Amino acid sequence: MTFLMSLHSNPVLRKTNLAVWRACWRSWKSRLHSSTVCPSSGPGPLNGPEEVSPVSYENAPHNPVMLREVLQYLDIQHGQVVLDMTFGGGGHTKAILNLVPEVTVLALDRDPTAISLAEQLAKEHTGRVKPLLGRFSKLEALLSEMNMKPGSVDAVLLDAGCSSMQMDQADRGFSLSKDGPLDMRMDGERYPDMPCAADVVNTLDQQALASILTAYGEERHAWKIASAIVEARRVNPITRTQQLASVVAGSLPAAVVYARKDRLHRPAHVATKTFQALRILVNDELNELHAGLCAARAALRPGGRLCVITFHSLEDRLVKRFLQGEDLSNLDQYHFSPRKGGKGKMLDEKRDGGSLYWRPLRRKVITPEREDVKDNPRGRSAKLRAALRC
Questions:
Q1: Which residues does 19 contact at the CB level (< 8 Å), separation at least 6?
Q2: What is the pTM of this model?
Q3: How far apart are CA 231 and CA 106, in angstroms?
């Protein structure tokens, strides 16, 4: 029900069509608890329960995105305190520990699997790694519990979106290439009552689904895909990742299916934007990102450094406008869409037009080098923004 209320109060989707969301709210409320199909509580694959492979620090992914650039702009010094807000597989944190002596890393992640890896790393670097389990929106409370005062952190890294570790585990439901339950909850089983992606696609009506795909996936064919989802679930609930991917692919003409390319000009699956939209919705990623940026601003000392890595335009626009000092306290679709005019309402603008809180370390966004993309194709869409806390 908490998730339902967040859907109903979400300004991005509410602004898209308030009448749709009133109908959506009634539909969701009446059907959710009677027809929940989240794979964690529903039937598994036809050949029996899946085995969830444990992740150890040794077999976790260690190919962090834009590592060289992150280390350059964070410019971490001996004995400083660094906050890694998205520990994930620990690649960035491990590089920082190996590069800078006596540094202390606060390792935050909302995923219990990632925190278990952080705890393993903490044993290897006694006193230098402090794991923190929680979302961005809980960071200030977590730091307070550690007696960390505002302004006591020297550098912050925020690597937004889904981690490679989550993508590689089929049972998490993020991957298009590996079949698994349609889950997508970054928190894992921490909140058992929190609906997953399967609940969304099997419960919301066509117009609500189309609004989600448009707002969070920037999907041009949102209405066709939403229609196909509604038709498919009338036959069988959609509970598997490749089941949903097939429904999406089958809803579009061949010219569209085979025309999509990624930034390396390789064929891209037509369901990529659908998966992105569902993942963002289920995990409330944009509101969490904004909360994380606010928490980073409070945690950093004057002169401290912030690096934020994003992987799609919605995230990057939000980060860019936050660092410019725009007021994002009431997030709506306006803040996430391309803008032809000038800046929006300013929260902390200086007289010269800059932000009171941030000074960019580089005016333009930083993107991966071509060789880096070849070595790590998943980082091809990454964008890095770096700023100094004023």
A1: none
A2: 0.84
A3: 47
